[in-house]
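Q: Please design a sequence for this.
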């Protein structure tokens, strides 16, 4: 016979197993009590976390507003001085003493919904130059 490579899975030993029906009923009731108590503890924890988070968000709010204000001002200045910062457009980045400014232009994209209708409309209008035909070898 051929050996199989399937590993045997053994159950781990349990610390506690009820011995009677009454113990099982009591254990189920205990599980319910413990789950409710755990839910209460988690709710209290979440309340405290929410209060702490709110306090720190309020403390950080003036900093966030100042950052936004500074960022917008820096952006306006950089756009006004872009030619000097990028050597007349030769570079897309400018290195300053405290950081780097980057101008990145993502390529434009076009998406078409209901492509079949658009193709039919282009053919109907005689605009076949906007259509691409794919030629392949028939295998």
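A: Design:
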């Amino acid at each position: 016979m051929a050996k199989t490579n399937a590993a045997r899975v053994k159950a781990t030993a349990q610390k506690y197993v009820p011995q009677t029906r009454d113990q099982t009923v009591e254990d189920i009731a205990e599980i319910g009590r413990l789950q409710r108590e755990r839910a209460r503890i988690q709710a209290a924890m979440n309340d405290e976390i929410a209060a702490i988070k709110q306090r720190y968000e309020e403390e950080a709010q003036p900093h966030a507003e100042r950052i936004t204000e500074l960022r917008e001002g820096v952006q306006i200045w950089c756009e006004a001085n872009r030619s000097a910062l990028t050597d007349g457009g030769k570079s897309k980045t400018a290195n300053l003493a405290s950081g780097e400014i980057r101008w990145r232009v993502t390529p434009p994209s076009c998406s078409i919904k209901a492509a079949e209708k658009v193709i039919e409309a282009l053919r109907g209008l005689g605009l076949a130059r906007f259509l691409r035909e794919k030629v392949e070898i028939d295998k």
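Q: Thanks. Anything notable?
A: The first strand starts at residue 93 and ends at 96. Residues 21-80 form the longest helix (60 residues).
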